[in-house]
Specification:
Distance between the termini: 46 Å
Radius of gyration: 19 Å
Strand content: 15-25%
Shape: globular
Order of helices and strands: EHEEEEEHEHEHEHEHHEEEHHHHHEHHEE
Largest sheet: 9 strands, mixed
Number of helices: 14
Length: 365
């Protein structure tokens, strides 16, 4: 039977969603709905992408496009979703949040009817889906809240699966655990096999940390987005199931979005500003302006290899207890992105296999 899942945060959450699906449902076919809403390092255009921003899509159902391996974002926009569609054992559908909660609800309901499913699994890696909205470290609550509100508005049964509490550095594990309950499963290295190869190129940090936790890695890991360590613990490999009703009771933004039933993304953004005190969309716009024209020439892989030990030593001095760093943080810290970062990873796998503790980089050799 086909399973219908929603990658609540978009982007790298598709990887975590595929991982969770395999743990829950094995080889059953999966349709994953996701936003194309990614970090500026991937997509320099602020905000999410709609179907108009891609070539090579095909209809999945009425109002929902399927992303194929042959699809492509139209420059200057970017997206990792086409490559994920080719690399992961799922059917990938594009959610368009520009139509607001009501539009998303229609997209989800039509997809559920088309595939004959009567429930949806909403998957979030990290935990901002279960945020109250007032956490000082919260960065991107809107995509997750929209997904929950849309499922509630669609009237379709939905449970939320929170994977790797605290791994996205938005809501600390210690703040989430008291209210998560005991309904959970624990991911293992066997569960990561369908997605392990994706980390050879995808810059996701939260899903990489989730896979690392499932593979048994433990200890502090420095991440790119905050530059601070996040702790990989036994809890980090868990996936908690939470009813939509419990999420709506805790997540004020999701609750207000559901009650408002807004018809476009601009209205949802205004509500996010009112509830959380900030707009992540405006933060993206501001950051994009700062990044525009400020790029520096990319360094070479050889220079990075010569300088990596000194760079890691500085990181150890700054974060004495940290054991790992995400590959994305290391590559960007050494001045590499894109193809050059991929080349560095390949060299590390070959030349320093004990240091590359896939999908993370060990601070000690």
């Amino acid at each position: 039977m086909t399973q219908l899942l929603i990658a609540a945060g978009g982007g790298g959450d598709v990887i975590g969603t595929t991982l969770v699906h395999g743990a829950l449902s094995g080889d059953e076919p999966a349709v994953v709905l996701s936003y194309s809403w990614e970090r500026l390092v991937v997509d320099p255009v602020p905000g999410p992408r709609s179907g108009r921003d891609f070539t090579g899509l095909r209809p999945l159902t009425r109002g929902v496009d399927e992303i194929l391996a042959s699809s492509a974002a139209i420059a200057p926009a970017g997206s990792t979703l086409p490559r994920l569609a080719g690399d992961l054992p799922i059917t990938l559908g594009l959610l368009d949040p520009y139509r607001g909660v009501r539009g998303l609800a229609r997209q989800i309901a039509r997809t559920a009817r088309h595939f004959g499913v009567d429930e949806v699994k909403i998957v979030d890696v990290g935990g901002d889906v279960f945020a109250r909205g007032d956490e000082p470290t919260l960065l991107s609550p809107l995509p997750d809240a929209l997904a929950v509100a849309a499922c509630a508005t669609a009237g379709i049964r939905a449970d939320v699966y929170l994977a790797g509490p605290g791994l996205d550095c938005e809501v600390p594990e210690r703040d989430l655990l008291p209210d998560l309950g005991e309904d959970h499963l624990t991911l293992t290295a066997e569960h990561t096999r369908p997605v392990d190869h994706v980390f050879e190129w995808h810059p996701s940090e939260a899903s990489a940390l989730l896979a690392a936790a499932a593979r048994g890695l433990r200890g502090s890991c420095v991440v790119r987005d905050t530059g601070l360590p996040v702790e990989i613990s036994d809890v980090s490999a868990r996936v908690y199931r939470i009813s939509t009703e419990r999420v709506l009771a805790r997540n004020r933004l999701a609750r207000e979005l559901h009650l408002s039933g807004n018809a476009d993304l601009a209205a949802a953004e205004r509500l996010s500003l009112e509830v959380c005190g900030f707009s992540e969309l405006q933060r993206e716009r501001d950051r994009a302006l700062l990044m525009n024209g400020s790029g520096t020439p990319e360094g070479s892989v050889e220079e990075a290899l010569r300088g990596i030990d000194a760079w890691l030593e500085r990181l150890r001095d700054r974060h004495g207890e940290a054991r790992y760093v995400t590959f994305r943080a290391a590559a960007e810290g050494l001045g590499l992105t894109g193809a050059a970062a991929h080349a560095l990873r390949t060299r590390l796998i070959v030349e320093r296999p004990r240091q590359y503790a896939a999908p993370l980089l060990a601070l000690a050799g």
